[in-house]
Amino acid sequence: MGPNSPSTTPYAHKVVASIKPIFKMLFPQYREVFKKYSEYILKHRVALHYATEQLPILVAIVIIQVERDLAYAHEINELYQQIEELRREVHRLTNPE
Predict the structure, then answer these.
(1) Is the full-model pTM beyond 0.70?
(2) How far apart are CA 87 and CA 93, in angstroms?
(3) For residue range 77-86, what is the model confidence (pLDDT) as tens digits?
(4) Which residue ranges make up each domain of the chain?
């Protein structure tokens, strides 16, 4: 980074501060979402910092969505595994040998 650019952590905190007013205007239950967004932004602060030519908040939102999609995909896979186990159990119980 150039001599005039802030380091990654202060920059990430600046991005978090930029979205905080948005969440203050929303319902209180969204505070947990804001905390998670803040965690994602700080976790990926280096990537965010290198994308300074883009709109940083948009980059942060993309990172957040990617992480959420990965988490949801994992949860969905676990649900499919549980469904398959239940099917096998139902089959075993309805077709005793």
Answers:
(1) no
(2) 10
(3) 999 999 999 9
(4) 8-94
